[in-house]
Sequence to fold (167 residues):
Amino acid sequence: MIETERLILRPLSPQDEEAFIRGIADDELRRMYGFPAELSRETARRIFAHFSTIPAYGLIRKADTALVGFLLDVASELPDSMLPSLPESGCTLAFATFPPYQRQGYMWEALTALIEDHFTSKNTPYLHCGHFPFNESSRRLLHTLGFSEYGQHRFGKSVIIDEILFP
Fold:
């Protein structure tokens, strides 16, 4: 668990399932993550169950315990062909803020704390994130945090711009 001024980052738990399902029902999030256009409740539950088995944080707002988004360590999830040539032992993150909570600084706050945790406590040699070329908000966020463009790779029919941060 990681705590910030406004958030608690903790593993996704069964109590987060309904909020998660509502959050990923957003058309833009479904498109970006490659979720089906018609996302059934059962499919959304399977996605949540899967995310609960990999290193994943729910971003919980302290004020009201709302699930505002998630951060995932997806390195183990992606085939080597989908990743750029990266050194071993880093961390590849995927993240999303649910629409009602976007543009309020929550992801900046969460990533800042996670970066600190990885580089000081876990001695992670680098962090890798990606964003879609059209997602200017994610690009600006990552560059504000110190990430630099590293390359790109294919994700389904899309291209992901790879960003990397070293301590």
Observations:
- The chain has five helices and eight strands.
